[in-house]
Amino acid sequence: MNFFESQDIARRNTGRLIFLFAMAIISLIVITNLLVMVIFGFVSSSEQASSGLGVQFDWVTVMAVSAAVTAVILFGSLYKMAALAGGGARVAEMLNGRLLLADSDDYHERRVLNVVEEMALASGTPVPPVYLMEEAGINAFAAGYTPGDAVIGITRGAIDSMTRDELQGVIAHEFSHILHGDMRINIRLIAILHGILILGILGYFLLRGGAYGRRSKDSGGIAMLGLGLLVIGYVGTFFGNLIKAAVSRQREFLADASAVQYTRNPDGIGGALMRIATHDGRSYLNNPGSMEISHALFEEGVVTRFRSLYATHPPLEERIRAILPNWNGEYDLPDPGDSEDFGVRGQGQEGNVDNTAAPQKEKAAAIFKGAAGVLVADAIIDQIGQPGAAQLQQAQQLLSDIPPELLAAAHNPATARAVIYVLVLDSEEQARQQQLVFLEKSADHGIFVEIQKLLPPTENLPADYRLPLIQIAISSMRQLSGPQYQLFKTNLNKLIEMDNKIDLFEWALQKIVFKDLDPLFEKRRPQRIGGKDLVNCKSSVEILLSVLAISDRNSTIDPMLGFERAGQELKNMELTMLDKSAISFERLNKALDELSRLKPLQKPALLKACVACILADQKIAPIEMELLRAIGATLDCPIPPITVG
C-alpha cells in the first residue's frame, strides 16, 4: 500500500467513523427513551392489554429526550476535540510529557532526538517535537492532525532500555502513523469515545443527586435514571472500544512493516518488541489518561479485564513473527549497554553515517545519468511517504556535513529565527546591508548578534543544506510565544519585499515555514482531506506547471519542453503554458490552495507531472527541489530527499 492509498483509506475510514458515531447516537437515543418511559410511567398497562404493543409513546417527551441525548454526546465530543485542537502537543501534555530540548545533558535524550531528526529529514516532514514520559514501561506514540503539528511521545523506559537500532525501529513505526494519516483518526476516536462516555458521567451525577435528595418524591426516579444512564454510557463505551480496537490492530501491522521498509533492518523493530516482552514494566503506563490514547501507542499501555476484546494491538508474538518469520521463539537480546551504539552528534560521536559515500550532488548526477525521465518520475513519486534506508543514510550524511554552528543555531528556539533570516538575505551587497539595518532595528533582542555570527558559515552554503536547516528551525520555532512568532513573520515578509522582488526560493521558504507554523500560532483548523478532481482544476494546474517550467534559470532547454513533458503525464487535460508576464505569486498561491483540496488518489498524477517537468533536462536543480518540496508540503505529501536506485 503506497502513501496515497493510505491517505485515501484514512479519508474513507473517517467517513465510516462518522457513520458509526451516528449509529451509536441513534442506538443510545432509542435505549435512553425506553429507559425514561419505563422509569417515569410511559408504559400503559391498559394500552398493553388492548393493543398488545406494550408501550404508549409521548412524542413530545421522545423528541425532548432525543435532543438532550444528542446534545450531551455532541457536546462531549466537541469539547474533547476543542481540547485537542492544539494537535499532538495537547495529547503529550495530557500524558504529562516533558518537551525534550536539543541542549539536554542526558545522553539517551539526545540520542532519541537525533534518531527522530534523521527520520524526519529522510521522510521530508517537519522535525516533530519529542516529549518524554517518565514511565518505566517501554512505549511511544505519534499524535497530531497533520505532519506539520505531529509530535512524538516516548517513555523513559524506552530510551534507557533499547539499543539505537531498536529505538530507530520504534521511531520508524511512529513515522508510519504520521505519514499514513492514522493520527487524525486516532484523535477523532478519542473525541468520539469521550462523547459517548459523557452519558455515563451524567448518570453518575444523577445517581448521586437522587441518593442525597431522598425528601423529593422524584428522587427515586432520578436515581434510577442516573443508574440507567450510567449503564448506557458504559455499554456505549464498551462497543466504542471494540471499534477502536478493530480499527487499530490492522494499522499496527502496517506500521511495523513500514518500519522495516524505512530502516531495512527487521531486527530493529523486532528487537524492540522482544525488549518489551522481557522488560519488567512491559509497555504499561501508570498515567490515567493512557486508556484514552491506548490505540495510538506503540504497544498496549494498560491491562484491561477484557483484553482479548479491547486489545488495540495484536499479540507481541504475532507482531514479531510477521517481522521475523524465522524467529525461534527465544528472546535472545544483547544488553543495550554492551552493544555498539552510535547516534549522539556534537559530543565526539556521530550517527551511523557512511562517510565513504559520494557527495550528494555526485549521487544525484549518477541517479539521472542515462535514466528515462518517466521511470525516474515514477520512482520519486513512489518514495513519497515511503522513505527507505537510502534516504535515512542521506539524512545522516547531511546532518554530519552541515556546519555545526548553523546546526546548533537551528536547534535553538532563540536563534532558529536568525537562521531563516540569514537564508533570505540578498546576494547583492547594497540590498543585503539595507536588510541588515532593518533587522538590527526590528528583530527581537539578541537576534541581530546571532545573525552576524551566522553570516560567515552561510557564505557559499551549498543549496542542498537549506531545506534541512529550514526543517530543523521550524521545529525549534514551535517554542516561540505568539507575539514572537508574529514579529518573526512580519520581519520575514518585510525582508523578502525590501529588494522589490520575490524569487522562487523565497516563495518556497515562506510556503514551507508558514504552512507548518501558522496553524499552531494562528489557531487555524487543520485542513480536511480534500475531495476535488484534478480535471476540474485546469487553470491551477497550468499556473503551477508554467512556474516549474521556468524555475531553473540555468537550464539549457526550452521551458516549453518541460511543460510538454508534464502535459504527457496528464493526457486527459488540454493544457496551455502561460506567458511569464501572466504569472504572479498571488495566482500561484491561489492555485496551490485549490490543488491542496484534491482527492488523495488524484495527487500522484499532479506530482508526477511536476517531476516530469523539472526532469526534462535530466537533472534537478536545488531551486527545483525546493519548489517540489514546497508544493508537496502544501498538498500534505511530504517529499523525501531524492534517491533512485
Short account of what is shown:
The protein contains 27 helices and four strands. It is an all-alpha fold and 645 residues long.
Distance between the termini: 20 Å
Q: Characterize the biggest β-sheet.
A: 4 strands, mixed
Proportion of strand residues: under 5%
Query: What is the residue-averaged pLDDT?
Result: 79
Shape: globular
Query: What structural class do the secondary elements suggest?
Result: mainly alpha
Going across the biggest sheet, name each strand in turn.
Answer: 1-2-4-3
Report what the structure shows.
With 645 residues, the protein is an all-alpha fold. It has two domains: 1-332, no CATH class; 402-521, no CATH class. 62% of the residues lie in helices and 2% in strands. It has helices spanning 3-39, 45-51, 59-83, 88-94, 107-123, 156-161, 164-179, 182-212, 219-263, 266-278, 307-310, 316-323, 360-368, 373-383, 389-401, 404-411, 413-423, 429-442, 447-458, 466-477, 482-497, 504-521, 538-549, 559-569, 585-595, 603-614, 622-634, and strands spanning 98-99, 130-133, 140-143, 151-155. A hairpin with a 7-residue loop joins strand 3 and strand 4. Helix 1 runs parallel beside helix 8 (182-212) and helix 23 packs parallel to helix 26. It is globular, with a radius of gyration of 28 Å. The model is unreliable at 43-55, 346-351 and 353-373 (pLDDT under 50).
List its salient traits.
globular; 2% strand; mainly alpha; 4 strands; 645 residues; four-stranded mixed β-sheet; 62% helix; 2 domains
